[in-house]
Backbone:
């Protein structure tokens, strides 16, 4: 072989193969990896047209495979008001929120009746308690619809225009699987909505154009992501991504999960399992509960701090009931469709396990690798259930950092210590993945890796010292294990001959630096199928 397209030499090539090989060089031709080895051996493959990159001691890792995030949610949010508290943003007070919403309104110039939107709202960590109500939003934005998206994505605050359009007026009952918070001492909604009271409104916020979609995919590439997941897509969103891929091409691969309430439509249209130009419709997405930081994760042991509306003896919310879950899981398995289920709390994990077992009892076999997404406030015995049933958990260790102090308050130290038990899952022979759930938390895989290694909150508390993993196991959760989750481990996720040439060049080796330096490692270059899709220079 001679005159290959690209050669990288004189570096640390962390292959993440089964033997944990670290090589010096790698060669790429026609979008595939054709050699991994010493610099001398790989350099010998160069021809007159080969691009030869001297790594000068820097590091190459596999392109990061996104185990769970939301492309179609992140794209529309790019232009709106970012309301995140530290360490993600600088929103500290309600006046900060109001100012940023006005800035977004002035920037986007919505017509009267159109939306003013903010996202990343996290009152638990705001200096003044962060209370926002419909009345406040009405005063500030009398001519527009307003929505402030909670950092979890599972709740938000809206103004009276939105409440009235949804039929949420005085005396209305909470919908099944949802909570409408009221002004104290009244039955009048105060604008704060959770789960099934919120989700139908949330899906009306997701309009975006080609420019926003391109910008969103560029953000993934900037952080070294070469395969990304659209983790709860509507049929229209799936069709949009497919059309875009076929007409303009995708800088990174996108794997869509169809949202459960449109599953039948997706089946009828033959979308499940199809793939074209880097876009794949991977499976079904169930949403079984809410978020632990929003107090809507469904748990068997009650919250220490009660519910989001002041409820006592609160266990969170089941978004859909057991019978509906059973029917959807059986239907998916009958069609050979992989199931991904949002399960933050142990009660929702029990619900998924029960549906899986009911399908087996009905004589319906799973196509394999059912994925409980998040697997956060879970019990140790449920890992044994994962092993027995062939589940492949996707975990969310950045919660221990950004939301760790809130989890300590909501669940106490013992349960908080067991959040996203990545090390225990690995020890049991599972291949757990780790994810950002973007736009819920930042995309950056280096921050994800760091959180899995240190599990330290913003307040300095370590949540589950025994669940901290080694950097190589943390890296596996973001690469080869995530490829395994998507059933693509044969063609990506590690740097081995014959696999797709998805590579990331880093300015330091995460396996060698001090653990606290991992989060500061930067991506120098992202290569997708042998083509550079991001360069820091």
Residues:
């Amino acid at each position: 072989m001679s005159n290959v397209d690209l050669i990288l030499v004189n570096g640390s090539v962390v292959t993440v193969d089964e033997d944990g090989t670290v090589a010096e060089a790698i060669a790429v031709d026609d979008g595939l990896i054709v050699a991994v080895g010493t610099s001398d051996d790989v350099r010998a493959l160069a021809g007159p047209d080969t691009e030869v990159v001297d790594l000068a001691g820097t590091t190459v890792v596999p392109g990061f495979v996104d185990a769970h995030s939301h492309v179609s949610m992140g794209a529309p949010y790019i232009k709106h008001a970012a309301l995140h508290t530290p360490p993600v943003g600088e929103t500290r007070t309600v006046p900060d929120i109001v100012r940023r919403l006005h800035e977004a309104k002035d920037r986007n110039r919505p017509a009267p009746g159109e939306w003013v939107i903010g996202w990343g709202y996290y009152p638990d960590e705001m200096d003044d308690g962060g209370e926002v109500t419909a009345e406040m939003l009405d005063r500030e934005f009398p001519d527009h619809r307003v929505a402030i998206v909670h950092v979890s994505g599972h709740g938000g605050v809206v103004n009276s225009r939105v409440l009235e359009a949804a039929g949420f007026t005085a005396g209305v009952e909470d919908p099944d699987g949802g909570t409408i918070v009221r002004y104290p001492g009244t039955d009048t909604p105060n604008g704060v909505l959770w789960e099934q009271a919120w989700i139908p409104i949330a899906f009306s916020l997701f309009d975006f154009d080609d420019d926003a979609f391109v910008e969103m995919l560029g953000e993934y590439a900037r952080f070294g992501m070469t395969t990304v997941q659209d983790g709860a897509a509507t049929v229209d969103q799936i069709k949009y991504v497919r059309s875009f891929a076929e007409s303009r091409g995708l800088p990174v691969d996108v794997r869509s999960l169809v949202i459960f309430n449109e599953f039948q439509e997706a089946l009828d249209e033959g979308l499940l399992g199809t793939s074209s130009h880097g876009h794949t419709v991977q499976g079904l997405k169930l949403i079984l509960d809410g978020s632990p930081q929003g107090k809507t994760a469904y748990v068997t042991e009650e919250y220490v701090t009660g519910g989001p509306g002041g409820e006592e003896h609160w266990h969170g919310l089941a978004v859909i009931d057991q019978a509906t879950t059973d029917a959807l899981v059986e239907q998916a398995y009958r069609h050979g469709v992989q199931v991904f289920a949002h399960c933050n709390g142990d009660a929702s994990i029990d619900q998924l396990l029960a549906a899986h077992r009911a399908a087996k009892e009905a004589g319906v076999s799973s196509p394999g690798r059912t994925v409980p997404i998040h697997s956060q406030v879970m019990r140790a015995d449920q890992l044994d259930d994962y092993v027995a049933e062939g589940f492949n958990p996707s975990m969310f260790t950045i919660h221990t950092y950004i939301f760790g102090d809130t989890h300590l308050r909501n669940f106490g130290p013992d349960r908080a210590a067991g959040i996203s038990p990545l090390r225990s899952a690995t020890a049991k022979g599972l291949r757990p993945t780790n994810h950002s759930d973007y736009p819920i938390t930042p995309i950056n895989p280096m921050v994800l890796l760091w959180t899995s290694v240190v599990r330290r909150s913003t307040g300095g508390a370590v949540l589950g010292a025994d669940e901290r993993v080694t950097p190589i196991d943390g890296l596996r959760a973001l690469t080869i294990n995530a490829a395994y989750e998507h059933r693509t481990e044969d063609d990506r996720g590690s740097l081995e001959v014959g696999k797709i040439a998805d590579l990331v060049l880093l300015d330091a080796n995460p396996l060698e630096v001090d653990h606290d330096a991992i989060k500061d490692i930067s991506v120098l270059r992202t290569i997708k199928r042998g083509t550079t899709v991001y360069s820091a220079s």
Notes: The longest helix spans residues 346-361. The mean pLDDT is 96. The chain has three domains: 6-57, 91-205, 223-490. The radius of gyration is 23 Å.
